[in-house]
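Allow me, if you will, to draw on your knowledge of protein folds for a short while. I have a record of one protein: its chain in single-letter code and its fold written as discrete structure tokens. Could you please explain, in whatever detail you think fit, how the structure tokens follow from the sequence? The record follows directly beneath this note:
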Amino acid sequence: MKSDKETSGGARDGAMERGRTETFDEMLDRNWGELLQELRVMQTGVQITTAFLMTLPFQSRFDELNPTQIRFYLALLVFSVLLTGLILTPVAVHRKLFRQHIKEVTVEQGHRIVQIALIGTGLLVSASVTFIADVLLGDSLALVIGGAVLLVTALLLVVLPVFLRRKAE
């Protein structure tokens, strides 16, 4: 497996091999644009989930939650808000580093942040389903349902991309 340095350095030659006729700077611009598009997709889902979680305490049945469910809810809410902040981080980094001619670093760090955010999004979705299942069905079934969602999410977000990458190589 290639390191990020080898991948980014090799991308200069790789772009030409695949029929792209772009300079290294053009490749960085394209990669940054692709990262922003991916962040937009994630941001929408995470922000909707965060908004949903923020409204729960104002629902009439929220008072029926047991202390464990309330602690789980609070952990879920804090995680969701922090994940929202993480997804916004590449934009903040780009703004701070704008016009400093270090786009390669910005793209590399943005790439890492997107990877972490993808895992976080999968965990957020799985934990949200677990929480809702716990409120509706109880602990045991919630763990089974949440575990199944976590497994499928891990397969889609981690295993499938690795499989496709290896197949392409």
Residues 1-16 have pLDDT under 50 and may be disordered.
